[in-house]
Amino acid sequence: MMMKMNKILITLLFALLMQSVITAQSEGLTSSPYSLYGLGIINQTSIGRANGMGYTGIGLKTDTEINNLNPSNFALIPKNSFFYDVGVVGEFNSYSNTGNNESKTTLNFSNLAFAFRIADRLGAGVTLVPYSDVGYTLLGLVSNIEGSNETFESNVNGLGGLNDLSFNVGYGLSDAFRLGIKATLLFGKIEETETFSISGSYFALNETTNYSGFRLGMGMQFDVTDKITIGSTVQLPVTLSGSLTRSVHKTLDGEEINVEDEETDDVSGFKLPLEIGFGMSARIIESMTLSADYKKNFWDTTNQSENIGTYANQDIYAFGLEYLKNPRGYKYWERMRFRAGFNYDNGYLALNNTKIDGYTLTAGIGLPMGRASNSILNLSYAYGSKGQVQNILVKENFHTLTLNLSLEDLWFKERRIN
Prior knowledge:
Strand content: over 45%
CATH architecture: Beta Barrel
Number of domains: 1
Number of strands: 20
Largest sheet: 14 strands, antiparallel, barrel
CATH topology: Porin
Radius of gyration: 23 Å
Distance between the termini: 19 Å
Order of helices and strands: HEEEEEEEEEEEEEEHEEEEEE
Number of helices: 2
Helix content: under 10%
Shape: elongated
Strand order of the largest sheet: 2-3-4-5-6-7-8-11-12-14-15-18-19-20
């Protein structure tokens, strides 16, 4: 009876948190000025241990937690185990250009995930993470009044982003070779509000763009030896469909007037490129695991551009280390996991022929929540930088803290008392 109640409570918790994550996008998950372009900042924050290991995991073999970076790893979910992961992320951004310096802080949910075993060598799971984040503010933009030499100033705010809801299935063709498939629903909205005043009148232009699309991906892992695993992933290109809703409001002498009612129009679809990834992991000594990933995103083939830039092919290099003395040790510190990593992204947007690249340094710790269970509290910290103070570009530095409850529950297993 108690186990049945636990299952009901867990199911209700996930339903409530999933609703919270979906609505959280309207509150902003980033404050980066570079989220102005395209779909916003493409999210790299992952689930559990990967956040402390440079966001690596394509070739990382694990049967004690969820690895959402390669769907083939879901084949390793143990019998009777049900994994779930809930995460929260906080980010402090500071950015500067040739004129001034600013800083902002954001806090929100980062992910929901669960995974379970279906049959021998067959596992599945569902993950919900932000795909992209938008959260920018532009103050004092100067524009000309059409037909005159007069100008006016306006303020622009952008908020929102896209969610990534993925259904993963992994199957082991043998003990050493696994294949996986991932079906992803991308959905979300980006809201932009521009406000300005002219001759005592206040105007507000609201535009909301909704995007949605379905994407397929595949993954593979192969255990070269009992200490070395290699892996690869593919994400197929897709064009997201979009619709735009626009409204204009005017306020005169305290009275609000609808200049233009809400109207919905189709907008050009946004193209996501072919993405491929390769990874490996190795237990270099008995207590140390090394993980390394390389990803290539072919943005050139989308033939897309922004007003002041174009999309260019993107390369991402990532490395991670984890130290674990003994996962079943009697001493608590022996079961603690210590992590570090590095991630370099050469960027996918070129402004004035200058690509916006960036790097991230990560560190993390895994705190076990019991000796006989795989439940663990994952804490990670990341420091990163992107862009540069040059021409119209902005130098951005950020600090990120993530907390993940990576839990294991034993389902479908009867408790025996001797």
